[in-house]
Task: inverse folding
């Protein structure tokens, strides 16, 4: 049974998420920073032909208001004048037509994250997708897939403009109906986690220790040595982004309708981290989450966990058995973030009183727990080595991010790795920074084979968090011809060099 008032992800159903970066020293000078920011090459699809026939969905990009709470209303760019954008349900293998209208004054892109679609539809200009012109239109047709929890979001360069790109409200859920039911459940609930009111901040490195696995001492010395040298030259720490407000489905904790349940209900939660830059956690006192899918892909081993962790762009589908009656807060582990809105109320029938919160015991997030016990997977045809490093405060005060010593050039669309169609490749990634990087490959899925010293197999994703000073290996089959973008999914990182292209020939 579904609950339309919950499932449709309407504005009435919102609530927030938050972060600990408010302690940073806020910096001004946005106009000066913008003037010195690197330019992004933009070519718009200027065709003005009006569509004929009826599209399956219509999405309009335009400015609008989001009521986070009755006394906190913000203006931002939205899809169809709502946050999140409309829930789009598609059938795997059944072609869909979508009309895209851009009612703003700047070119836009709409990225179909996690779907295996052609490069001219995918929604990344680096791959050759035409921009949706200001006050223009594109009609696209594609075959949805794979099945599961996907999403759509803007894919434009923001730089220091914190009104643009993923800092805006341009995010919505796509659910490609699977052929097989993920399990018996009484409710299906979609949750979009998102931050608002961004501001530039001057802060230090912020390591997060929730990821399992070992660190590489060589990578650690490399990263710390580079940072020491930079600070010794008098350089400040690179600019970061902090937030003041957080929401789930566009409403702050205490300002949206609760999820109402009955004892012994099984609730299927589809959780999307729609953040521009932030990693999120989610816990529900007295309950556990049976993870059934990661990034929309069924896991080989279903495991119950007390906390969900999601990097930017990651999705988790999990079943929760409602066996602890009361009124509870489903919220972030951070007291500060939860206090600024990152939570939602779960209310049992016949229960009343103030929503309660209790922190779970410490828990390490480990992708390998969802993998196969037999880790002897298919051998790759070739291995591509990558090392990720940070050039502190090197681009107008922002960190510059390097892959194998090179930052991506928007003007030259370089660097590019060439791969052969039909071959299987292993990406061996080494992180010489203490930042966590949610790595995303467009138009492909990847299989985890090794992460932070642990072998695994069978876990298929399109975003994977690589921990600070850790190493990770993932495999993918080059089955999508043309250019595919590979990047850190944090807007602040991809804008300043953390991208590369694969050219499948």
Result:
């Amino acid at each position: 049974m579904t609950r339309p008032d919950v499932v449709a992800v309407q504005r009435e159903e919102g609530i927030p998420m938050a972060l600990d970066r408010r302690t940073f020293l806020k910096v001004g000078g946005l106009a000066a920073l913008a003037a010195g920011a690197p330019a992004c090459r933009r070519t718009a699809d200027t065709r003005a032909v009006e569509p004929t026939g009826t599209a399956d969905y219509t999405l309009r990009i335009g400015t609008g208001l989001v009521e986070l709470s009755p006394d906190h209303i913000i203006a931002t760019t939205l899809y169809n004048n709502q946050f999140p954008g409309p829930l789009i349900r598609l059938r795997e293998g059944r072609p869909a037509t979508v009309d895209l209208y851009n009612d703003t004054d700047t070119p836009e892109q709409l990225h179909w994250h996690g779907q295996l679609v052609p490069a001219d539809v995918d929604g990344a200009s680096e791959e050759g997708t035409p921009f949706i012109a200001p006050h223009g239109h594109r009609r696209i047709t594609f075959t949805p897939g794979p099945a599961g929890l996907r999403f759509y979001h803007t894919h434009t360069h923001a730089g220091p403009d914190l009104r643009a790109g993923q800092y805006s409200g341009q995010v919505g859920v796509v659910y490609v109906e699977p052929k097989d039911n993920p399990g018996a459940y009484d409710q299906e609930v979609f949750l979009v986690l998102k931050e608002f009111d961004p501001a530039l901040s001057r802060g230090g490195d912020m390591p997060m220790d929730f990821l399992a696995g070992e660190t590489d001492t060589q990578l650690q010395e490399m990263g710390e040595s580079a940072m020491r040298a930079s600070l010794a030259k008098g350089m400040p720490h690179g600019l970061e982004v902090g937030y003041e407000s957080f929401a789930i489905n566009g409403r702050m904790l205490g300002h949206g309708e609760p999820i109402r349940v009955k004892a012994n209900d099984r609730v299927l939660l589809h959780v999307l981290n729609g953040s521009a830059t932030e990693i999120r956690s989610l816990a529900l006192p007295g309950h556990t989450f049976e993870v059934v899918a990661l990034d929309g892909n069924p896991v080989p081993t279903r495991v119950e966990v007390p906390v969900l962790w999601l990097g930017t762009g990651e999705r988790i589908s999990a079943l929760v058995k409602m066996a602890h009656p009361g009124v509870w807060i489903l919220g972030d582990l951070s007291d500060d973030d939860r206090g600024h809105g990152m939570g939602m109320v779960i209310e049992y029938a016949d229960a009343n009183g103030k929503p309660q919160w209790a922190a779970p015991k410490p828990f390490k997030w480990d992708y390998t727990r969802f993998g196969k016990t037999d880790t002897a997977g298919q051998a790759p045809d070739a291995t591509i080595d990558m090392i990720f490093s940070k050039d502190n405060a090197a681009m107008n005060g922002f960190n510059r991010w390097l892959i194998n010593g090179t930052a991506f050039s928007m003007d030259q669309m370089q660097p590019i790795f060439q791969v052969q169609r039909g071959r299987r490749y292993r990406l061996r990634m080494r992180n010489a920074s203490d930042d966590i990087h949610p790595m995303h490959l467009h138009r492909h899925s990847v299989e985890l084979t090794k992460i932070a010293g642990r072998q695994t197999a069978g876990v298929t994703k399109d975003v994977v968090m690589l921990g600070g000073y850790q190493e990770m290996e993932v495999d993918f089959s080059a089955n999508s011809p043309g250019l595919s973008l590979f990047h850190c999914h944090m807007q602040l990182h991809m804008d300043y060099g953390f991208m590369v292209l694969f050219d499948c020939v």
Q: What stands out?
A: Confidence is low (pLDDT under 50) at residues 1-49. Residues 68 and 251 are 4 Å apart (CA to CA). The first strand starts at residue 25 and ends at 26.
